[in-house]
Amino acid sequence: MGNSEKHLYEFGPFRIDTVERLLLCGSEKIPLTPKAADTLLVLVANSGRVLEKDEIIKSVWPDTFVEEGALARNISTLRKALGDGMEDFRYIETIPKRGYRFVAPVKDLAALPESPKDLPEKLTPSVEETPPRRRTWRAAWIVGAALVSLAVIATFLWRQSHARPVIRSLAVLPLDNPSHDPTQEYFADGMTEEVINSLAKIEALKVISRTSAFTYKGVKNKPLPQIARELNVDAIVEGSVLQSGKRVRITVQVFEGKSEKQLWAQSYEEDLRDVLALQSQVASAIAREIRVQLTPQEKQRLARSRQVDPEAYLAYSYGRYWWNKRTPEELQKGIEYFHNAIAKDPSYAPAYAGLADAYSLLGSIGSDVLPPSEVMPKARNAALQAVKLDDNLAEGHTSLAYVKLSYDWDLAGAERDFKRAIDLNPGYATAHHWYAHYFLATAQPERALAEIRRAQVLDPLSLSINVGLGWCLYHAHRYDEAIQQYRSTLAIDPNFSLAHATLGMALVQKHSYDEALAEFNKALALPGSHSFALANIARTYALSGKPAEARKVLRDLERSARQQYVPAMYVAAVYAALGESDPSIRWIEKAFEERSDYMIYLRTEPSVDGLRSDPRFQDFLKIIASSR
Q: What would the pLDDT profile of 426-440 be if each residue is shown by its tens digit?
């Protein structure tokens, strides 16, 4: 930065000149790097005006390509040098998503004097201000006592002004991709998810999960305080990630949610093979800066990392991107990428956990893509391999627990793995979500509600978790609350087929048959399981006194079952509604043979209440409860 004029800027107790670029506090020199001094001069010279990041970068680094991280580091350095408080920025204010503004009053003392003797009086103490060389002991004692008192008061005031806000919860918003290269978008998303997962391992910190955080991807105009309110968090983390050759750089900034004030900013760079260590480093730094108390075990987990093949990591990021979409087609894409990741690095445990999760969803109710007997053994093998490669991977234990619960019906084994996963990563929302289903399987709906609500706190905008809360309320026979919860879910996304279908099921229990049919027909018109919607339409006709209409839909459903996979429990529920227990039991036997995950819900599922007195039905419940 060049400046032909000599100026001396004064703000608070500080002064800086445009020639020597020397920052003074009284007579004390404050060391600054040349670029940090240039940054300060740009801000001071434009006091009161919002400076866009690009504008500052062009002034400080003319004719040079520099990333935002360099600017963020300079701002962090300046704040430390100026003693900017965490509660009240007196000098440099961050304008989220735009730039910075120097907010302190600035006095331009015009041209610099030619020699030190011409400096303004305040820079050098006058003779009158110089303490006498001799004082009586009494005067010295009085002055000393006064100075001690002033020091105590000053320390108190400094601590008050520099008090950090208490941060007990935060959200990591999707990291920006400054390269604008679409292929790096998946990488940036993967980095975001892994930073979230690393922070979620800290029990004392509530970290919003990926699904809810990514709701704000691409959202530029929503103020940070509004996002913080919507997610109910104390702080927001923003940043960017850039991959260049074999290097990766991540820049992060932490903002207080209610005020948008920047609390901290820093950039980190590592070899691409060390990307896992980089994620842990960033998470540890954030935890340290917001002063979260870590247990020795948490410090150890955050410090633990390994190298990974960059192509394997990228393929895994792609896989998780598609897995989070949850449609059958996108789950299949996820499986392809997980296989690619494993081919590149057979020792990369997260890829096996991702593969297990994708296979599990393809064989679960609500998706109904493939018979459980076809895909769940693949899910089990992948989950076992994930845990074998890394016994400290929460995702691996969660994947294995879900297979044990929904396919093996090994309730004790599932509980052990769920507990292990939550111990490893208390903030992993999926572990709490699927653990809630364990409590439904063991006929503990109130404990299921407590667990699913923990998942919802961690991932408040997740459609599957919000439907899961409605499902737990439904199994607890709290139908009015279930209806309200399903409608809240549809307020998030009115095109979520499963929410319409499960809302219809709760309405059926309230005998609101016309409303229920309307919801099932909406589900039928949207992407999702058509057999689930059709079975519920047939069941509703049967319960509302329209057996002919019910049998017509039932025939369509049975014909469909001969051509594609239709969970046998769906047909069993229709026969139960028609009051025909024998065919209903036969279809339950078929569901038992195909190892349907719906079987684990039979102890509390209201749709089969009419069969509970049948000894054959009770035998099924005993077998499932005793399975290991």
A: 999 999 999 999 999
